[in-house]
């Protein structure tokens, strides 16, 4: 029999297939790993950006909260904390004080981070003392979405590459791998069925033989490792029993009331000594019974709410509820509960914090606060009454002083009128006669006689002012066309060319019911004061007297503005006082009389002045004055 010859070219395809089997999967795995690393890197960048963004928000908030007195102004602190929820990634936030069981501030308000589990969390100290801490929980859903998108892309690329690799490797796999692997798989199946190591034939020198030898070594190692694991399992079981005993002891000696319930039946499976001490029960009275049968919950609706939260969230934190002890005492507690999976099935772990004394103290504090507020309100009411009485007393005192002034002024006016006017009339007659005698002569006393005549007229005017302010002459009310009457009154005043009068009359046809002569006196007094104020203005400066009017549905307004030297700010409040004057002559009754006339017509007068700029007087008169008050 001739020897079998080796087919030409057999070695090259076989070598190619070996390289293909090795390099293509390696390339695909490397590509998939690279894409996965890129995905993780992009996700890490997204996570870093998310952390930086939330850290920036939290940092700004910590800076703002550090400047707040959170105990005194919780509303402002609550508003600041709620701004964190504007970031969609932030689930909740809490500000807690060191050692406190309840947070100071929560966002969302009233809930905080209760029930938030699947999220990231970090905390920042508030202020330099570090007694308060900001806790922020935020969602990484957007980061996971980024990671998932890149992973899907890498998986798609891997699947496409695997399909290409599978198509290229199928023939070579069938030719060079399937049969040797069959032997290996047979040995593996025998090992599984016999539950002991079965070694495969590894006589060849090809790659699969190397794999088989590795399999045989692995079987040997597994056998040794299984023995080691079995020994380790025994040790861990013993350690677990020790830990369970330690947990049981910790459970029993814990300071807070702790209970374990079967969620399927609602009965107590275990309670610690603190629970028995607070609730005043014996252990045999509790184990195997439910809270409902023991009537522990005072408000069954609150119990239903607690159960609903447990079912919806899996845990409850600091749920306030009233419970009844065996003796009938009502306690206020903060309950927390969470489902835990134990060897004998799921259990509900519940812990309660007795805050009865705290709530009583808070209620007492609230009552004291309300009592303080009531006392403060009563004090403020008393203070308001005292202020009102003081103002009434000041007004009465001012009225009395005004009456005394008027009485004194009346007496003075009567004396002046009687004692001065008759001598002044005689002097005036004598001067008139002397003036007639001096006409045509060259004695040179004409100017002196004119000066004496002017001063007599001035004295007579002073007497008239005194009589006009001290007495109130009766006059008849008349209807006048306001703008026409004002224009006529001012045109009757002699100003020569020294003062320019500017009119802006914007209330044509408006009628007033007034005493025309009295109102004329008021307007003339204002005009004469303006002319006298502008007399000291330099000749090169403009001397303007501006008059403007307007009307509303109720009032007629007149505004008089001059370009005089103005009035000092210290004297503004006294310009309407009788006998007050800043001029070296006059009685100081002009503006006082004007104010009296305007108020008699149920109107108002206001004066504003700037030193060196001028003075503005505003008068408002009602369109329908009352006859009884104006008479």
Task: Describe the fold and architecture.
The protein has 631 residues and is of the alpha+beta class. The chain folds into 4 domains: 15-163, Beta-Lactamase; 254-354, Beta-Lactamase (2-Layer Sandwich), CATH 3.30.450; 355-471, no CATH class; 475-630, Heat Shock Protein 90. Helix content is 55%, strand content 18%. It has a 5-stranded antiparallel sheet, sandwiched between helices. Strand 3 (120-126) and strand 4 form a beta hairpin. Residues 1-13 and 626-631 have low confidence and may be disordered.
In short:
The protein is α+β, with helices and mostly antiparallel strands. It has helices spanning 11-66, 74-82, 141-176, 178-194, 207-253, 273-279, 283-286, 291-294, 300-313, 356-438, 446-470, 482-491, 516-534, 590-600, 627-630, and strands spanning 90-97, 105-107, 120-126, 132-138, 258-261, 268-271, 315-324, 330-342, 345-354, 478-481, 500-505, 511-514, 544-551, 555-562, 604-610, 614-622. It folds into four domains: 15-163, Beta-Lactamase; 254-354, 2-Layer Sandwich (Beta-Lactamase); 355-471, no CATH class; 475-630, Histidine kinase-like ATPase, C-terminal domain (Heat Shock Protein 90).
- The CATH superfamily of the largest domain bears the name Histidine kinase-like ATPase, C-terminal domain
How would a textbook summarize the main sheet?
A: 5 strands, antiparallel
- How much helical structure, as a percent, in the residues? 40-55%
- Class derived from helix and strand content: alpha+beta
Strand content: 15-25%
What is the 3D shape?
elongated
Per CATH, the architecture of the largest domain is 2-Layer Sandwich
Ends apart, CA distance between termini: 160 Å
Q: How do the strands of the widest beta sheet line up side by side?
A: 6-5-9-8-7
CATH topology value of the largest domain: Heat Shock Protein 90
Would you report the number of β strands? Answer: 16
Mean pLDDT: 76
CA radius of gyration is 54 Å
Give the low-pLDDT segments.
1-13, 626-631
> What is the oligomeric state here?
single chain
CATH class category name of the largest domain: Alpha Beta
Number of domains as seen in the coordinates: 4
**Number of alpha- plus pi-helical segments:** 15
């Amino acid at each position: 029999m001739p020897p079998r010859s080796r087919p030409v070219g057999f070695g090259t395809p076989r070598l190619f297939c070996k390289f293909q089997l090795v390099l293509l999967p390696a390339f695909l795995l490397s590509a998939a790993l690279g894409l996965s690393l890129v995905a993780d890197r992009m996700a890490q960048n997204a996570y870093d950006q998310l952390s930086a963004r939330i850290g920036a928000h939290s940092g700004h908030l910590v800076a703002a909260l550090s400047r707040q007195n959170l105990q005194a102004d919780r509303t402002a602190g609550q508003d600041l904390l709620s701004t964190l929820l504007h970031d969609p990634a932030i689930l909740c936030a809490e500000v807690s004080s060191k050692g406190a069981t309840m947070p100071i501030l929560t966002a969302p308000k009233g809930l905080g981070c209760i029930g938030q589990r699947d999220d990231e969390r970090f905390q920042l100290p508030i202020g330099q003392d570090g007694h308060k801490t900001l806790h922020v929980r935020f969602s990484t859903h957007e980061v996971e979405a980024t990671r998932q998108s890149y992973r899907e892309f890498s998986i798609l690329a891997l699947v496409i590459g695997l399909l290409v690799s599978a198509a290229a490797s199928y023939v070579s796999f069938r030719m060079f791998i399937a049969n040797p692997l069959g032997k290996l798989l047979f040995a593996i199946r025998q090992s599984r069925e016999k539950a002991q190591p079965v070694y495969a034939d590894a006589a060849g020198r090809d790659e699969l033989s190397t794999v088989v030898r590795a399999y045989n070594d692995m079987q040997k190692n597994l056998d040794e490792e299984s023995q080691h694991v079995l020994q380790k399992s025994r040790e861990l079981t013993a350690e677990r029993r020790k830990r369970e005993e330690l947990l049981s002891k910790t459970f029993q000696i814990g300071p807070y009331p702790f209970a374990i319930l079967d969620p399927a039946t609602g009965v107590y499976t275990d309670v610690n000594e603190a629970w028995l001490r607070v609730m005043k029960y014996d252990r045999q009275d509790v184990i195997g019974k439910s809270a409902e049968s023991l009537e522990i919950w005072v408000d069954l609706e609150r119990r239903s709410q607690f159960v609903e939260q447990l079912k919806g969230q899996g845990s409850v934190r600091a749920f306030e509820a009233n419970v009844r002890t065996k003796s009938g005492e009502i306690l206020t507690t903060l309950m927390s509960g969470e489902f835990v999976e134990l060897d004998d099935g799921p259990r509900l772990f519940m812990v309660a914090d007795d805050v009865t004394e705290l709530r009583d103290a808070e209620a007492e504090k609230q009552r004291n606060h309300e009592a303080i507020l009531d006392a403060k309100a009563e004090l403020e009411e008393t203070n308001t009454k005292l202020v009102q009485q003081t103002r009434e007393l000041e007004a009465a005192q001012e009225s009395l002083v005004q009456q005394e002034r008027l009485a004194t002024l009346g007496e003075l006016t009567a004396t002046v009128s009687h004692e001065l006017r008759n001598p002044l009339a005689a002097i005036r007659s004598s001067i008139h006669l002397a003036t007639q005698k001096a006409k045509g002569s060259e004695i040179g006393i004409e100017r002196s006689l004119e000066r004496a005549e002017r001063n007599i007229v001035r004295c007579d005017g002073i007497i008239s002012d005194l009589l006009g302010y001290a007495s109130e002459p009766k006059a008849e009310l008349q209807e006048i066309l306001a703008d026409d009457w004002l224009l006529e009154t001012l045109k009757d005043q002699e100003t020569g060319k020294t003062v320019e009068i500017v009119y802006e009359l914007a209330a044509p046809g408006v009628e007033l019911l007034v005493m025309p002569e009295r109102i004329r006196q008021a307007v003339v007094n204002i005009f004469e004061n303006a002319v006298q104020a502008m007399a000291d203005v330099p000749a090169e400066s403009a001397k303007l007297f501006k008059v403007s009017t307007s009307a509303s549905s109720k009032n007629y307004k007149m505004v008089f503005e001059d370009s005089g030297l103005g009035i000092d700010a210290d004297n503004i409040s006294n310009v309407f006082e009788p006998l007050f004057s800043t001029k070296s002559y006059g009685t100081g009754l002009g503006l006082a009389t004007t104010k009296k006339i305007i108020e008699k017509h149920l109107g108002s007068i206001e004066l504003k002045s700037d030193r060196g700029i001028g003075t503005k007087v505003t008068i408002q008169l009602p369109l329908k004055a009352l006859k009884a008050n104006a008479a």
